[in-house]
UniProtKB/TrEMBL annotation:
<dbReference type="InterPro" id="IPR001890">
    <property type="entry name" value="RNA-binding_CRM"/>
</dbReference>
<dbReference type="GO" id="GO:0003723">
    <property type="term" value="F:RNA binding"/>
</dbReference>
<dbReference type="InterPro" id="IPR035920">
    <property type="entry name" value="YhbY-like_sf"/>
</dbReference>
<dbReference type="InterPro" id="IPR017924">
    <property type="entry name" value="RNA-binding_YhbY"/>
</dbReference>
<protein>
    <recommendedName>
        <fullName>CRM domain-containing protein</fullName>
    </recommendedName>
</protein>
<dbReference type="InterPro" id="IPR051925">
    <property type="entry name" value="RNA-binding_domain"/>
</dbReference>
<keyword id="KW-0694">RNA-binding</keyword>
<dbReference type="Pfam" id="PF01985">
    <property type="entry name" value="CRS1_YhbY"/>
</dbReference>
<feature type="domain" description="CRM">
    <location>
        <begin position="1"/>
        <end position="97"/>
    </location>
</feature>
């Protein structure tokens, strides 16, 4: 599912009050880290990721890695913070994805 502009705007508004749940540190990007992101998104659908000061990667590298190795979509990048979205597969966790589909 490719997000349109109106859908991204809605998700950015929903993510405004969220705090980052994950961080990219000195260990960098690994498949296990992406698997943890996917697991968290199955329950929440929308999360923020923070890049720590000691990381050797930048925001565009993280964005490209996430989108290449998973079905997660990067909704927004602000400084060293990324907003990620993935529709949940279980109906009980699909609050945001139902609202996004209506837009």
């Amino acid at each position: 599912m490719q997000l349109r502009g109106k859908q991204k705007r809605f998700l950015r508004a929903q993510a405004n009050h969220l705090q980052p749940l994950f961080a990219v540190g000195k260990n960098g990007l690994t498949p296990a880290w992406v698997a943890q992101l996917t697991g968290a998104l199955e329950h929440r659908e929308l999360i923020k990721v923070n890049l720590l000061q000691n990381t050797s990667v930048d925001v565009t590298e993280v964005k490209d890695y996430i989108e290449a190795h998973s079905e997660i979509q990067v909704v927004q990048t602000i400084g060293r913070v990324l907003v990620l979205f993935k529709p949940a597969s279980k109906p009980q966790f699909q609050d945001l994805s139902i609202q996004v589909a209506k837009l």
